[in-house]
Amino acid sequence: MPTTAEADFYIRREAQERRLADCTPNPEGRRIHLELAERYARLVAEARDAPPAIRIPA
Question: Where are the domains positioned within the chain?
Answer without folding.
Answer: 4-49
